[in-house]
């Protein structure tokens, strides 16, 4: 987590207030793929911090034997730290 990054600070505040990240407001769908849909979301009380949120259905992943692929994708995203690659700010498992 980078210090001074307003997006990291907004996520930290949101997670401490609501660990389920229920403070997200969906703006629109950006796309869909084999294992999920991606939405443009905004933190309701974060002053304009927008993020892309990927939503995956656990039952569908299990039924199509895609759980390993989802875990691999998450693991790779957790390792990335490059200005030209997406940043994984948080994950939620429900």
TrEMBL record:
Highest rank taxon of the organism: Eukaryota
E.C. number(s) listed in UniProt: 2.7.11.1
Entries under PROSITE patterns matching the protein: PROTEIN_KINASE_DOM
Key words of the record: ATP-binding, Kinase, Nucleotide-binding, Serine/threonine-protein kinase, Transferase
Ranges for domain Protein kinase: 24-94
Catalytic activity from the UniProt record: L-seryl-[protein] + ATP = O-phospho-L-seryl-[protein] + ADP + H(+); L-threonyl-[protein] + ATP = O-phospho-L-threonyl-[protein] + ADP + H(+)
Alphabetized GO MF terms: ATP binding; protein serine/threonine kinase activity
InterPro entries to which the protein is assigned, alphabetical: Kinase-like_dom_sf (IPR011009), Prot_kinase_dom (IPR000719)
Entry protein name: non-specific serine/threonine protein kinase
């Amino acid at each position: 987590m980078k210090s001074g990054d307003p997006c990291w600070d907004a996520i930290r505040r949101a997670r401490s207030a609501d660990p389920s990240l229920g403070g997200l407001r969906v703006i629109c769908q950006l796309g869909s793929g084999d294992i999920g849909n991606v939405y443009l979301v905004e933190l309701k009380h974060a002053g304009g911090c927008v993020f892309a949120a990927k939503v995956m259905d656990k039952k569908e992943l299990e039924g199509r034997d895609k759980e390993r692929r989802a875990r691999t994708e998450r693991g790779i995203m957790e390792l990335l730290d490059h200005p030209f690659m997406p940043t994984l700010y948080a994950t939620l498992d429900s």
